[in-house]
Fold:
Amino acid sequence: MSQGFFSRGFHGRRQENELSARIPPGQHLEHGFPVLSAGPTPHTSLVTWDFTIQGEVDQPLRWTWDDFRALPREAVTQDIHCVTKWSKLDTHWEGVSLDTLLSRVTTSARFVIAFCDGGYTTNLPLEDVLGGKAWVVDTYEGQPLDPQHGGPARLLVPHLYFWKSAKWVRGLRLVDQDEPGFWESLGYHNHGDPWNEERYQGD
Ligand SMILES: Nc1nc2c(c(=O)[nH]1)N[C@H]1C(S)=C(S)[C@@H](COP(=O)(O)O)O[C@H]1N2
Ligand SMILES: [Mo]
Structure:
């Protein structure tokens, strides 16, 4: 057998091991991009779309679509993990870091409630969305985010199960007291760390 066969085989196996180390317990690798929505896809015109930060803040903030698009942007490559057990590796997104959005308010709040067109909400500790861990993204794999996947813009919080990545997100409400969002009030785990299998209440 040729040297080439061995080196390709070895490389392939090492790569396989590196990939499986990135799949949290109980998850399997998904190559497609399933759509999971609790209701119909809303279609909000970019003319009326805005993103607001409200609640326990020194002053509420509002960005129109043009304002939002003019903010400093980041391109990120992230692995995502759905509680229904699929994980997708190396997904490419572009958008605005929550560090950027939240740097413009002063708050004593410790939690954020993301709210969306269609009424979906999800709750997150502030510390889980700061420090380069969360974005409002409007671009997926170089294309405007498909409405089914949350376009014009969705939250991306890849280190938590994907239900925390609220689609059609329209803003953040900062609160002192945590309160469960849509799936959290229906029995999903309050935090949702895939590496600790925080799937459902009591996990
Ligand atoms: N507004 C809104 N955001 C949502 C949901 C939803 O029903 N409504 N579903 C959540 C769930 S459970 C998952 S797994 C992901 C699915 O995102 P996808 O459809 O792009 O795969 O979106 C999350 N964000
Ligand atoms: Mo999900």
Notes: The two ends are 50 Å apart (CA to CA). The longest helix spans residues 3-20. The domain at 2-196 is CATH 3.90.420.10 (Sulfite Oxidase; Chain A, domain 2).
